[in-house]
Design a protein that fits this description.
Length: about 500
Amino acid sequence: MRAFVRGRIPHRRVPEGAAILVDNGGRIAAIEEESSLDARGWTPLERIDLGGGLVLPAFQDAHTHLCQTGRFLARPDLGRARSLCEALETARRHRIEKTEGAIFLEGYDESMWPEGRGPHRGELDAIEPSRPLIARRVCGHIAAANREALARIPMGTAGVDRTTGRLEEEVVFRLEEDFFPPSLEENREAILRAQALAFSLGIAAVHELDAPPVAEAYRSLDCEGKLRLRVFFYARAHPEEVAKLRGREASGNFRVAGAKVFLDGSIGGRTAAVREPYPAGGCGELLLDVRRIRELLRSARAVRVPIAFHAIGDRAVGALLDACAEDEDALGGLPHRIEHAEMLGDAEIERIRVLGFRLSMQPNFPRRWGGAGGMYEDRLGARRARSLNRFGSAVRAGIPIAFGSDCMPLDPFYGIEGAAGHPSSEERIDREEALRLYTSAAESLVPGGGDGGALEPGRRADFNVYSEEAARDGILDRERLLLSVVGGEIAHARER
Ligand SMILES: [Zn+2]
């Protein structure tokens, strides 16, 4: 046993200096006055002094693409380049460093460059004639490819201009999965890189959404004891396929939690399925109709696999709710969830509550895209932009909702401030409630949750220690995070 002593825990009657006793399994055994440890005859082998720091539960991010984030971390960030010329120079250097496989560069933004345009095929061919080379734009919807990369994308694939090398939309999202699959080792390294980043941000658990091969990478790390982050995995596959993935976990930190299904696209790409057309035209794309959603729900019920439905537009959410009509047991008691649900009317909120869907929402979205002149306003107009991301309404309706980042960016501090500063005062969530949605509420979204997410005996000892300033004004940020403890062990300590 070890004890973390002299921690300040809000709402607990341990005025100065609580001791958190952690058992050898990494769980909280007790939270006591330090003096009563001796009285009870508990003699921890080790005492770690928290120096009066504020102790709060570690974050649980309810929507991540961590493996992908880890892969991006190893790639040059073209967002730092001040010109196209400089970006091409970065590509040239990186090509020499990366001796194997396809070469990816991320994040270019030509709007800041004197040339006023992104790279062309010919320029990329000149840098790399024999291996695939791809530069992706900061938005994630556009990329430029060299000849070798284009050769691996089948003829007839939509959104590919073989002359300029420009790639758009769907093909860009699916580059890795469909055409340039990373190796198991690449994914493993990416996960370890992203795990370190997560710990530095006080995140001890994630709900990861990705393709089945990524599950293999997590599983193998877990088997070797290298996965210290707790991962609930939603695999992009049919529920019956997901059922086969399940049960082969190493009973450690990795668990297959459910299936991920896309019902529509994004507001940024004008592909979210909306009822009222976008001012620029079109109503987005509904990827599955009501009949097919109903079939999926039936399969899910048969194999007991909950589904995380990506649904952003009101038409996509509506289709999901319609698929549940006329069947009282449509959800089959499973913790099905809607990811994003950015565009909800009052009627949808009520139907979500009655049916028992969970909501996984992103507080960073309104901060990133809301407000005057933001992306939401550009795509939908000011009136509709104001009514997005209805966190406050969902909480008041009593719907189980949790917060996640979608890795845009992976940063709960950014998200909490996003919720607290929502452009619509009705939908604002105060910091304390936002913290709950990023911790214990996230825990309760996963099947069989209840293991972590709170500072209570029996739960996992996953907690963060913050500096005194945070205790004073309630604002949490990365600078104030002194220590991240995961499973009772120090996972990250701020450099002093
Ligand atoms: Zn996502």
